Description:
The protein is 50% helix and 11% strand. It is built from 30 helices and 18 strands.
Amino acid sequence: MATDTPSTPITSRLVGKVMLVSIDNPPVNALGVDVRRGLMSAIDAAETDSAVAAVLIVGSGRNFIAGADIREFGKTPLPPALPDVCNRIEACSKPVIAALQGAALGGGLEVALAAHYRLAVPGAKLGLPEVQLGLMPGAGGTQRAPRLVGAGPALGLMLSGRHVGADEALALGLVDRLGRSDDSLAEGQAYAQELLDADAPVRRTSDAKGLADRDASRAAIDAARADVAAKSRGLFSPEKIVEAVEAALDLPFDEGMRLERTLFMQCIDSPQRAGLIHAFFAEREVAKAPETKAAQPRPLASAGVVGGGTMGAGIAVAMLDAGMMVTMVERDGDSLARGRVNVEKVYDSLVSKGRMSADAKAKVLARFSGATSYDTLSQADLVVEAVFEDMTVKKAVFTELDRVCKPGAVLATNTSYLDIDEIAASISRPQDVLGLHFFSPAHIMKLLEIVVPARVSADSVATGFELARKLRKVAVRAGVCDGFIGNRILAVYRQAADYMLEDGASPYQIDEAVREFGYPMGPYQVADLAGGDIGWATRKRRAATRDPRARYVEIADRICERGWFGQKTGRGYYLYAKGSRSGTPDPEVLAIVDAERSKAGVEPRSFSNEEIVRRYLAAMINEGANVVREGIALRPLDVDVTFIAGYGFPRYRGGPMKYADTVGLARVLADIREFAKEDPLFWRPSPLLVDLVERGADFDSLNKASQV
Ligand code: 3H9
């Protein structure tokens, strides 16, 4: 008997006495309204059909269920709600078995927890990752998971959002059985038959005894609460998770479910949910650049890196970690030896921390070779140049690459600022030249700007994106300009910070205000970490082209002139005790600031932290709008991802452009116009911002328009 209903992604089919309920909702079997409806009616039908002795729920495709359909959040919810579906499954009077493969995440795991028996095949990934979306499990997960596996392990899953494999799921007690093969349907059928043969009873997770040791459960909850207070800076949902698990211990199941619902809806209504879900989709959207749709990547097995400094070595490590063959070229033996040491020390540190074996290190380094001759790059599929930031030096490297590299090799520069069109035009194959702007340390930082010069071919760009995928980086497409997306915008909001510094705020107050907003560090802490000499060199380079009418704050130069470059010199905006990475305020820096104020004729005034953030963000958003308007970033969401992945922007705020939409573009524009009264040259409203406000539109409307 088959009861296929074409209007639902749920198919039910009786095989023997087992009703197979299959979920087919590509791409990841998310629990959209049709899936929820279909599951509800499938269980109802199985309940009343006397031919059915048990129900088996499976996912078709690669996954069981990846969770609630997160595109529905923020819209009017349509019944049935997922908790009701889960309760219906659990209430079924016939055994319900869930066979898990691929993702069984969030609401997907909650469906499985509501079933009476669970099996996972190898490769299954189970988890309650809602916290990463600003949420908490909202379909019984906070009540069933602790009852099943205990408060501590359940909190561990929910607060980290981590995925566990089938073996660990079995060890935790999340599943009862491991399948031997990958075929969840066959494994599930065999398990269901076995349960029927054994006359296995209906067994409800809401009755499970995982919280029976009340003292241990209470201790786990208290420990989690303390941990959340210490670590989840500014996040809303972790506390709610702890509260809900406490209810699992203290309240009857139904009351716990009601509390879970209330708390879940608070999370749904929070701007953090909107910000984090925006970030989730934006990170997937950025990979869909026009070139990745238009062309296939070129082969990409072996790579070359020119330059063995911090950047070159970090890039080499990132590539080695991705399993690639890497050749490093340096100009002489000594430099090469230094480059090799820079690479090896990353692995040595892992070995000394016990995170890598000496054997594994040797295996990785077997794929690494060094040379002082460019000829060794003749067979490389892709070469990244990471030498000194100087046009003449870079062009000389590219001339060599043009001479030795095989036809079709992708030739990339890691420049942060230089004109890549000019580099490309200097060789015979501009179609192969692009920018791959890594961030330091390159083997750790997630962001990779893929900078697309005018004459590059689509397949070279697609290869850049493929490299990012291999390296597990978040790639953002950027156009050519001074600083591309990230550093160009950074230069502007750093300037806004320097103006506030000269006008009366201390670097320590500015850092504090920015941290309160959700950044891990403020701009002056970042400057000290990165090294003040880098920014100093950039300022000197730009001095000749700076608008003479523009306000220029000299405080940073005064600090650099003293050789105070930040952490590496023990002194910058902050003082660093020997070996310490956290600084303390420096009265001498404040004296320099005072002297510069007097010199500039500035009467210092006080700033509230709120005003600091308002100015800092307004500068960032305005330049972000310019970058979008000029096509340097494809969409506002590309700016958002750049700042979340590369500049410490708090993910839960969704990125600067999403944040601007949240506070309202009209307010941002009004701020800029207000600030412009003091300095109309700096605070020039972006024409894009003005246009959007006039049309009553927001940045997200541009994101959506680009998807059509
Ligand atoms: C929840 O469950 C709340 C409940 O507790 C309570 C409810 C009352 N919805 O990542 P990929 C899309 S909260 C809608 O590239 P992969 C994704 O956008 C949810 N769409 O593939 C992409 O679309 P496109 C808890 C989703 O193989 C496509 O699927 N669950 C969802 O690298 C492929 O995605 C989670 O947080 C979704 N839930 O990774 C899990 N998930 O092709 C979130 C994905 O148009 N998902 N899409 O760009 C993931 O972690 C990964 O997507 C997964 C697959 C591991 C499943």
